[in-house]
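Sequence only, no structure available. Ideas?
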Amino acid sequence: MLERGQLKLDLKRLTAHWAGKRVDVTLTEFWMVHTLARYPGHVKDRDSLMAASKIVVDDSTITSHVKRIRRKFLAVDPTFDCIATVYGMGYRWSPETGG
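Reply:
I predicted one. C-alpha cells follow.
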C-alpha cells in the first residue's frame, strides 16, 4: 500500500483511491500515478513514466495519459491538483497538496 495524503494505491489489487473514493484507472495509469506519487516533489520525465508503465509510446501519448489521469481524479474531487507539469522536463506529484 502506498499512501500520500488522500491518495491510496493498493499495489496487490492495483487499485487507486482518493479521499476514500475509488478512482477507476487503467493499469498503465496506475503505474504512472505510482511513479509520480512514490517520491513527491521529484520530477519524472516521460521516459521514466514509460519505463514504469512498461510501455513505449511517443511524448504526446504520455501527455494524453496524464490528462486522463487528472480528469479521473477531478471527477472524484474537483479540487484535485496534485500532478504538476514541469515545463520541458515532465511531471511531479506535488507534496504540498498531495501529501
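Strands lie at 2-4, 7-10, 15-18, 21-23, 83-86, 90-93.
Hope that gets you unstuck.
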